[in-house]
Amino acid sequence: MKNTLKIAITIDFNISPFSNGLQQNIIFLQKLLEGINDFESYLLFKGDPQKYKFLKKNCCKPINEILNKDSNDFDLIILMGINLNEKTIKKLKEINPELKIVLMQCGNQVAHDIDNSVYRNNLNSIMPPMKGLDAVWTLPQHDMNQQYVKNYFRCEKIIEVPYIWNNFFIENQITNQKINPENLIFKNDKSIIILEPNLTYQKSCLIPIFIAEEFERSYPGEINSCNVIGGKTMDNNDYLINLIISLDIYKKRKNFIKFQARMPFINAVLNYGSIVISHQIQNDLNYLYFDALYLNIPLIHNSRRLSNYGFYYENHNITEGAVLLKDCLENHKNNLNNQKLKSHDLFEKHSINNINNQKSYVEIIRSLIN
User: What is the pLDDT of residues 120-149, one digit of tens each?
Assistant: First the structure.
């Protein structure tokens, strides 16, 4: 048994980690592994890591160098930000028969494939054949997909790994903006921000918009504005526009609902509001939720796994969501200390520094390699 294992994770630095959950997950995992004595962890990259000052440059290696000559240096390659096709996997294992290659499947593969099969027909987003994987790692919120993932990737070992988070990226945004984080707490308590990416039905602005509509019908004029962050590209969606123009928040409130470009979370809070209304389908764990709770701003959401935190409504229950909006306006500030204590426990549970999370990854990796 090797005392020290060399582990590499693939990443594409052409995609900003400040706007993409997968990129953040890669950095969190690398830093978790970096904190384990028996592991050496690296990022196999394409793009330019130089613009990210928070990275240790000696942990970054161009992926082409590894594929061409240095695969013997590694015991494990984790495919996250860059995938490899079947031919490349076979070649790497011929060079280094001891090498293990796993795919970290962070997204909801079933929903992704249904969405593209029925609606999008986007060939660029299809996963390449990857026969030869030693395991596929999945996250807890996608446990219902394990049989599909097993069949899709032709891999018998489907292993659930811990969901991890760190305050690193949100603190980095605060530092870059040169602001006191205390000033972000409920800064604009009369404006809603919706921050779903709106790329698929899994994380969409529709239910939050209807929660705002339900609230407006009961309490007209009480909320100042509703800003859909990341919704700018939906301006030309005739179906969505026709849904919205039938609503009171459009017909009776001039310039109330606005569609904004995608931006970092802190920028959205500073400029557009600090009541976050969110909605997801089968994606219960979301870095947006952790960041909002970390800033102690009100979070109205439907994540069953986080139902004890923020303001939780079930499934698509817009009436319940509207009631919670009223509740957060009246009571969030009064319950702030209790919310902070509860959230602290959540952050500890999922922390990259949590000994249980580190131990789980050690056990999973050691059992795979040995």
Answer: 666 566 677 688 899 999 999 999 999 999
pLDDT of 147 reads 93
- The answer to whether residues 318 and 207 touch, using CB atoms and an 8 Å cutoff, is yes
Q: How many CB atoms lie within 10 A of CB 234?
A: 16
**What is the side-by-side order of every strand in the sheet holding 135-138?**
60-62, 39-46, 5-12, 76-79, 100-105, 135-138, 158-160
Question: How far apart (Å, rounded) are the C-alpha atoms in residues 76 and 8?
Answer: 6
In what side-by-side order are the strands of the sheet with 275-277?
257-260, 225-229, 191-194, 275-277, 299-301, 311-312
CA angle, 176 as apex, 33 and 351 as ends, to 5°?
Answer: 30
pTM above 0.85, yes or no: yes
CA distances for 243 relative to 52, 250, 317, angstroms: 41, 10, 18
Amino acid letter, residue 86: E
How, if at all, do strands 100-105 and 39-46 pair? unpaired
